[in-house]
Amino acid sequence: MTAEVAIMNVYGVAMAADSAITLGHGKTYNTADKLFALSKYFPVGIMIYSRSDIMGIGWETIIKNYRNELRDKSFDTLSGYAEDFINFLSKFPYFSANQIKDYFKSVCIYVFERILDWFLDDLRKFYGDKGQITKRQIDDVFTKSLKEIKDKMKNINDEKQLKVDEDYIDSQMETINELLKMMFEDYPISKKNSQEIVNIIKLNFHKCCWMNRYTGIVICGYGERELFPVTHTFKVSGKLGKGLIYFEEDVVRIDPDDVTSNIGTYAQSEVVHTFVKGIDPDFAYSIDEKMSYTLSTIAERLPEKYKSKMPKIIELFQEYLSDTIQLNYIQPVLDIVDTLEKNDLTSMSESMINLTALKRHVTTDSETVGGPVDVAYISKGDGFIWIKKKTNYDPAINIELKQNYFNKRQI
After folding, report:
1. Among 88, 44, 389, 354, which residue's Cα sits nearest to residue 219?
2. Residue 164 belongs to what domain range?
3. Does 307 map to a domain?
4. Residue 409 lies in a domain
């Protein structure tokens, strides 16, 4: 895992990322690069979190290939860089047919696990204490479960992404049937329900409901026509046929007349949230959940004319809690961030990562945040500047690396 922050005000944006990476066998190393300049010539940076690769290819390799292709090209807005990066990924020629198929199989298995869990829950709900049940009853519940899943997915808005290649999904029926047999073992699935499952797979790629692996992307900086910094965040899942599966998350723009500062936190962000909001997010959720449950329980014992008022009381409590956090904790921090210049802004971003690492170190949580903290500062005038950058080599005996950086043939 990782911890990353991007702190913006009208002067610029400070980006910071830790170096911890946990491999498949559970071993953690503090050597990963997660923060990069997206352009050699213009004020744009990029951070990655959650996964260090996409379909077996390291993000560092992909980002540097993109940077080489971008060369000295620029865009009027930061969103232009984000869209160009997404298009680059969708056309990246080094994703093999086997890698694309492995990605598809991984998502299918994850979807089938969710379907199986839903189906078993429905079986327990309808027949849990009724002893022996017939195959017809089991089939009816399975059909009902698939319909509920499909209807629920349909009500979710499509995520912003390149067009889903449904033809590719249709071409993988043999793979789908093999996976269904593996997941559902001896349970025979009718042709009609098999088609419903295929429809659910397609909906899942459109809606991005059940995606078992993705990489978070954070792009910060300025377009040519933007005077104040912008942060564009999204998640990339993988390549499906001819299309890229990614989900849109958020765009934050600094504007002196509206949003004058912002603290963006990514991946393991609970410690930063506690610092900014004055309360641990899990603790805040527990308070809200317990209070709602308590008030609802009380409402059951009240006369009918008072029961209808309880939802409004719960809503008022939630609004009061939110307003108190915003007024007494978040806004005072943001008021200070408004005025911070480069040194203080970068120090704050680094401290937030170190604070997260310290919390992981002194508690029973896994130490999945740690190592050297890479820090960069981006401003309209000076562009992308490294404040702190770990190196795996001695710069004194690798002078040619610096000389080659602006060579258009190098990445």
Report:
1. 44
2. 98-205
3. no
4. no
Identify the CA nearest to 12 among candidates 248, 348, 272: 348
Same-domain status, 77 and 12:
yes
- Would 312 be classed as within a structural domain? no
146 to 191, 208, 289: CA distances (angstroms): 13, 17, 30
Q: Which two tokens stand for residue 405?
A: 């950086």
135 contacts 187 by C-beta, under 8 angstroms: no
> What residues contact 170, with CB distance under 8 A and at least 6 apart?
198
DSSP 372: P
Is 300 within the bounds of a domain? no
**Are 169 and 218 found together in one domain?**
no
Rounded Cα distance, 219 and 144, in Å: 43
Is residue 101 a contact partner of residue 168, using CB atoms and an 8 Å limit? no
222 within 8 A of 11, measured Cβ to Cβ? no
Cβ density class 282-320: b for 16+ within 10 Å, e for less = eebeeeeeeebeeeeeebeeeeeeeeeebeebbeeeeee
| CATH code for position 69 | 3.60.20.10
pLDDT tens sequence across 1-56: 689 999 999 999 999 999 988 776 667 888 899 999 999 999 999 999 999 999 99
The token pair at 378 is 């981006």
Domain boundary among 173, 205, 237: 205
Eight-class DSSP state of 216: E
Domain boundary among the residues 172, 205, 238 is at 205
Q: Is the pTM of this model over 0.70?
A: yes
User: For residues 1 and 118, which has the higher predicted lDDT (pLDDT)?
Assistant: 118
User: If you write DSSP's letter for every residue of 32-44 in order, what string do you get?
Assistant: ---EEES-SSSSE
Q: How many domains does the chain have?
A: 2
